[in-house]
TrEMBL record:
GO terms for molecular function: mRNA 3'-UTR AU-rich region binding; NADPH binding; quinone reductase (NADPH) activity; zinc ion binding. Keywords: NADP, Oxidoreductase. InterPro entries: ADH-like_C, ADH-like_N, ER, GroES-like_sf, NAD(P)-bd_dom_sf, QOR-like, Quin_OxRdtase/zeta-crystal_CS. GO terms for cellular component: cytosol. The keyword Transferase does not apply. The keyword Oxidoreductase applies. This is Quinone oxidoreductase. It comes from Noviherbaspirillum cavernae. Residues 11-322 form the Enoyl reductase (ER) domain. PANTHER family: QUINONE OXIDOREDUCTASE PIG3-RELATED, QUINONE OXIDOREDUCTASE-RELATED.
Length: 324
């Protein structure tokens, strides 16, 4: 038997239960992974609250790192004994051991420890596709990135710096502003004391930016559109403050024929060759030292409710992991 987190109904942090489960043996296309660490991400909150529906009872958690114990029929890209990391569906990473689809698993380089592997996959691959595929950044551009001191944000700060991109990042406090700047964010805006639209226009000389990366949703969506230059791209990749309100397509036309996309990592990593290329890019950035994964919070798996409370109240910075 192994310990895992299960939810039997949707709701607040209190619905997560620390229970014993039977991991079992992997079937065709599956692998059994003994996890050294698993990552905490805001998408876990969406599943816990029912914003993203899933069958119940169910697990939570989308990423982890550990060692493959066994593989099922047809699995050839990993084998028993391999060090692996992953980000992918279905939920269930909050566990000591889990049987899962083998498709999301990638071999973890020896130079990257398990804690880092668990903390970097979902957030790091997110930045990879945002910056290299959704809107391919070029050196010399200026961008707006919301929540610059979060786990995704701190990786984005460093990746932007490595690409020669000027990043404007929004944050919720002066302490978070200092953290984002230390990681490569050129300009920071405290959205609690400043109007981010006005500041972006001031920084860019009234031109706006060619792309906005927005994981906040309801509270920032309209303002983000107002920060874009004509023909700019609005990348809405999350909704931490709630779903984006209804709007008409004329809102895009009136602001200069803007583009809008709502990407999901799971579409970007669906093909094996894409996942391998994205992971190799991310691992290379980390191994070279151009990106450092800051694990600023660690919680025991049984303390996951407190971890969720801290995440939702925006007390966390950088990456957070759970230790089984």
């Amino acid at each position: 038997m192994a310990k895992a987190i299960r939810i039997f109904k949707i709701g607040g942090p209190e619905v997560m239960e620390y229970v014993e489960v039977e991991a079992g043996n992997p079937g065709p296309g599956e692998a059994r992974v003994r996890q050294a660490a698993c990552g905490l991400n805001y998408i876990d909150v969406y599943f816990r609250t029912g914003a993203y529906p899933q069958p119940l009872p169910g697990g939570l958690g989308m990423e982890g790192a550990g060692v493959v114990e066994a593989v099922g029929e047809g699995v050839t890209h990993v084998k028993a004994g391999d060090r692996v990391a992953y980000a992918g569906r279905p939920s269930g990473a909050y566990a000591e051991v889990r049987v899962m689809p083998a498709a999301p698993l990638v071999r973890l380089p020896d130079a990257i420890d398990f804690d880092t592997g668990a903390a970097m996959m979902l957030q790091g691959l997110t930045v990879q596709y945002l910056f290299r595929r959704t809107y391919r950044l070029q050196g010399g551009e200026t961008i707006l990135f919301h929540a610059a001191a979060g786990g995704v944000g701190l990786i984005a700060c460093q990746w932007a710096r490595a690409l020669g991109v000027t990043m404007i990042g929004t944050v919720g406090s002066d302490e978070k502003a200092a953290l984002a700047k230390a990681h490569g964010c050129t300009h920071t805006i405290n959205y609690n004391t400043e109007n981010f639209v006005e500041r972006v226009k001031e920084i860019t000389g009234g031109k706006g930016v060619p792309v906005v990366y927005d994981s906040i949703g309801k509270d920032t969506f309209t303002g983000s559109l107002d920060c874009l230059s004509p023909l700019g791209m609005m990348v809405s990749f999350g909704a931490a403050s709630g779903p984006v309100p209804a709007f008409t397509l004329n809102e895009l036309a009136s602001r200069g024929s803007l583009f809008l996309t709502r990407p999901s990592i799971f579409n970007y990593i669906a093909k094996r060759e894409d996942l391998d290329a994205m992971a190799a890019d991310l691992f290379g950035m980390v191994e070279s030292g151009r990106i450092r994964i800051d694990i600023n919070q660690r919680y025991a798996l049984q303390d996951v409710a407190q971890a969720h409370r801290d995440l939702e109240s925006r007390k966390t910075t950088g990456s957070t992991i759970l230790i089984p």
